[in-house]
């Protein structure tokens, strides 16, 4: 997968070359380009923003600069353009799975009050565009959202995780939150690992895990249980 990120803070994206993502780059599974938006400015101040029409606080990112940046970064390709914004549709595991099927993603990081809307409308005539939010809170810019989105997407690419079963058991992959996990020692500070997990009885372990996932989801995210199609619940689940 090819990923391009356009930002006024290229250093902010340095963690994309660390740990699991760094390994994905080394293995040739991820081809990453980070571009400084100011490369497409021509004035002495390298200005990327201007005051908003209609008034109000904050600044809006200029269409000319973004237009040229996207023309150059997207030249000869039809990538999917992702614009992180608190006004976007929610980024979820299902969206991560969808994006993991793409061959080229371009991220446009806005700062200030956002990017002139015409940049997004113009790009949408040439390529698929998604405005995505990573949660109901406001960050200073899109960079941290890009870190979260790229990490969630790249770990789904075949060959990135050592054990492909890892993400089949993720929270959300069955619509539920994952339950608790334990490792050695069996007793730590008088707290014992649940006996069933040490029993070797695989059916009992699977049932126990499913019950803890249901309980946790009920307590913390009742909205997820509400959204679960009835067919996803087995007879035993329904008794809980
Ligand atoms: N930019 C600022 N806040 C954001 C959020 N919550 N999600 C995505 N991009 C953002």
From TrEMBL:
Protein's UniProt keywords contain Methyltransferase: yes
Compartments it resides in: Cytoplasm
Keyword Cytoplasm annotated: yes
SUPFAM superfamilies: alpha/beta knot (SSF75217)
Catalytic activity: guanosine(37) in tRNA + S-adenosyl-L-methionine = N(1)-methylguanosine(37) in tRNA + S-adenosyl-L-homocysteine + H(+)
InterPro entries according to UniProt: Alpha/beta_knot_MTases, tRNA_m1G_MeTrfase_C_sf, tRNA_m1G_MeTrfase_TrmD, tRNA_m1G_MTases_N, tRNA_MeTrfase_TRMD/TRM10
Domain tRNA methyltransferase TRMD/TRM10-type intervals: 1-226
GO MF terms, alphabetically ordered: tRNA (guanine(37)-N1)-methyltransferase activity
Amino acids binding S-adenosyl-L-methionine: 110, 134-139
GO cellular component: cytosol
GO terms for biological process, alphabetical: tRNA N1-guanine methylation
Homology family: Belongs to the RNA methyltransferase TrmD family.
UniProt cross-references to NCBIfam families, sorted A to Z: PRK00026.1 (NF000648), trmD (TIGR00088)
Function: Specifically methylates guanosine-37 in various tRNAs.
Subunit structure: Homodimer.
Descriptive protein name: tRNA (guanine-N(1)-)-methyltransferase
């Amino acid at each position: 997968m090819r990923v391009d990120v356009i930002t006024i803070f290229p250093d902010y994206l340095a963690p994309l070359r660390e740990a699991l993502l760094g390994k994905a780059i080394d293995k040739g599974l991820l081809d990453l380009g980070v571009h400084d938006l100011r490369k497409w400015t021509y004035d002495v101040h390298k200005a990327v923003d201007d005051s908003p029409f209609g008034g109000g606080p904050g600044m809006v990112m200029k269409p000319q600069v973004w237009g040229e940046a996207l023309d150059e970064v997207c030249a000869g390709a039809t990538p999917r353009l992702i614009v992180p914004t608190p006004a976007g549709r929610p980024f979820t595991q299902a969206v991560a799975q969808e994006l993991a099927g793409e061959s080229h993603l371009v991220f446009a990081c806005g700062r200030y009050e956002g990017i002139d809307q015409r940049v997004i409308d113009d790009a949408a005539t040439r390529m698929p565009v998604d405005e995505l939010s990573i949660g109901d809170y406001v960050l200073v810019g899109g960079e941290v959202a890009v870190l979260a989105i790229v990490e969630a997407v790249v770990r789904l690419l075949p060959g990135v995780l050592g054990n492909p079963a890892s993400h089949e058991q993720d929270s959300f992959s069955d619509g539920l939150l994952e339950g608790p996990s334990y490792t050695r020692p069996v007793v730590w500070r008088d707290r014992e690992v649940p006996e069933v997990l040490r029993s070797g009885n695989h059916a009992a372990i699977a049932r126990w895990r499913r019950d803890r996932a249901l309980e946790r989801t009920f307590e913390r995210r009742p909205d997820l249980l509400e959204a679960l199609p009835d067919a996803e619940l087995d007879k035993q689940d329904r008794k809980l």
